[in-house]
Input
Amino acid sequence: MSAIKKDVVIIGGGPAGLAAAVQLRKKGISDILILEREKQLGGILRQCIHDGFGLTRFKETLSGPEYSQRFSDEVEKLGIEYITEATVIDIASDKKVISASRKGLLEYDAKAIVLAMGCRERTRGAISIPGTRPSGVYNAGVAQSYINLHNTMVGKDVIILGSGDIGMIMARRLTLEGAKVKAVFEIQPYPSGLPRNIEQCLNDYGIPLYLSHTITKIKGHSRLEGITVAQVDRNLKPIPGTETDYSCDTLILSVGLIPENELSLAVSVELDNRTKGALVDENYQTNVEGIFAAGNVLHVHDLVDFVSLEAENLAEAVAEYINGVKLPECSINITTDANIGYTIPQRISGEKDFKLSMRVRKPFKNCEVKILQKDEVIKTVKLKKALPAEMLHIKLEKTQLKSLEDIKVVIA
Amino acid sequence: MRQIYDVIIIGAGVVGSAVAREFSRYKLRTAVLEKELDVCRETSGRNSGVLHAGFTYKTGSLRAQCAVEGNAEFEKVAEELDIPFKRTGKLVIGFTEEHMQSLLKFKTLGEANGVKGLELINKQRLEALDSSAGGEFAMYVPSSGILNPFEYNIALAENAKQNGVDFYFNNEVIGIKREEELYKIQTVQNIYETRWVVNCAGLNSAVVSTMLGIDGYTIGGFKGEYFVMDKKAGKYMNMPVYPAPDSKGGFGIHATPTMDGNILIGPSSEFVEDFEDYGVTPPVMEDLLSEGATMFKPFRREDIIRSFSGIRPKLIDKETRQPLDFVLETRDEVPYVINLVGIESPGLTSALPLARRTVAKLNEKEDLIPNESFNPIRKGILRFAEQSTEVKKKLIAEDPNYGEIICRCETITKAEVLQAVHNCLGVDSIMSIKNRTRATMGRCQGGYCETRIAEIIQEEKKKKRKEIMQSTAGSYMFEGTVRD
Output
């Protein structure tokens, strides 16, 4: 069997992949294929049955399945080809995509590949929580999948570690299904999820959030029996003498998301150690020509709306690439000060207007984001607040650039 | 119907399973009683997975004999049982003159034990053998190797089962009586009758020994904690790297590649009273971080995907508190009992040699009739991920379940999970599937596949949600349904 030729193969039929596909089609690219490993399109949104999606993109509030359905409907309407229950198992050199499905091993030669695999959850093992390994310790997204997709209740007496958005949403969900959620503990001195989720998922249900606290021990031989929690100091180390024991049969971990880039690594896509996603230019192109990335596989977003918008921007560049437009050389690097975690893109050409997405590492109030070239400020943005939970987006026009020198972004 | 066994083995760790397999070569009604829900849930499944050479044990000791014998035959064993094994060699590294003296001493000891090919090597040679290894010089041990401890233990038990041995899981022994020339073994579930009893109870070997009427053994539990590292790190490493042993032959924290391409950092060694405390602790984790970087130069904190611990049952002298040799004994005053006490490292390497010696002990009292239908060959579950593209296509064409990826990190297919769920031992906890397929062992630690595996177990074994166990009895995964 020889490989099937495709202009664009999109890996992942979640919000990023769907938005990229629709936009590509609208830009006149018709030879598109979406490969999705689940039974349906929609990605993680299928299990996000709460509302709050779409305020930016559609100016209305939707549930996750409703949000993704809008894109799936467009995919259907536009006749874009997609295959579900097909897991990409390898990307070989020359942009060959190999996917496994019940019908066989499918091989595609793509002119362009869009990486849209999303992200995975950081696990207990990765953060090395001390203690035993009983059942009843779940990642928040896994618990969400059990409850919302598999009609399976994970436990009754719940503690949540980490104030990530999924953790807080699960606090509300478990409460609504009759579980007792005792508390949410966050190691940082500030919440890692969105303010609206603290309000709507914790405060509305009287669930306490303890900042600067972490779990120092997990207890139980077979099923989880309890945990020990301690306050942490400035260096995030537990303070002896502050330990408190809680009984619980379930521990939900919401301790961060990691872009899922194992396939990208297989084809030598260079990753940014800060985002764990690809290093991209203003076209969302990685260091490998013809391989592009957007959405949570690139960097973890706060709102799905920005995932869609990013993928739509990517699609414009991919369409140009397919149409044979030479994408400009991107040799202006973008660096940050220590208070800004990263920027996307990490390099630009200077020949196009562009948008910088970024996150701060700690909360700021009444602050200024400055964009510099050779110590000269080329743009200043005043903000009332900047939170690590919320992405910042700053637009720059090419005319604002003073030179082809590298750009630095700072906040104070 | 009254079922009387010829032999009952207590414990389905690697030694109990090897003993069962070796007895299945003969016409004996044999059974294994295990307190856990599957094989290798304790010491046998919680270790470095190393085939030891035998250069640190006292010459002439049972430990030294079994290690050297077990090491030499392992290619054949791995082939018969279809388990992953690689004779990688091992580096025992040093930095100081004291380390050099230690290496010289153990080289001499190893040679006396019959270990072949031991060689002191300089830094240049060390780096050529494994550029990720720390150390200024090393002893190279070509006969050491790595194996998958779960698969080895499972394969021994499955081969025993295929040759007629009965396995009873979730059957902790709580009392043993001798009546009518038989042993009546009371477990938490049942009473089992047998002519012979073999104690392979590992951590509980002293307790079982006392139940059988042999007093006086003290088992000390030495807990070792480990970190498991991502395969991303594993690609740098060729062979286990150990620090120079202390004067008693004890190794500190080492780095070992696994058959699947991960790296283990550990174990520590702490004395514990509670033999079921598999917790991991912050001070030890700190040690592992620093020692890990000494043994394995490309060590990165972010590559850690999991931690675990195991407990080694060391038989210790009550007076001097010094560790003693393995015990494999029969006693005239306690007839029809073969007692194995204090089997710890190198237990994986020694399991079959110990099993043969156990059979020989019984054979001293009774003639054994060969089981003519005994088949030493056992087939494992074919790994889809390790096949060529052509074979993958063929597999999917023959069985579409090979085209359904259940565990994305390790590329484990539904066909493999189904084979694991229908294993011949009849065990079906989530961990049983994990140890047979590697599903959930990757970097997402089951985030993607655990829901699928739970569903497959439910469907295939007709179980309710609350009946799905993670690992041990009582480790239920779910409360039930959200809505009826």
Remarks:
- Chain A touches chain B through 51 residues (CB under 8 Å).
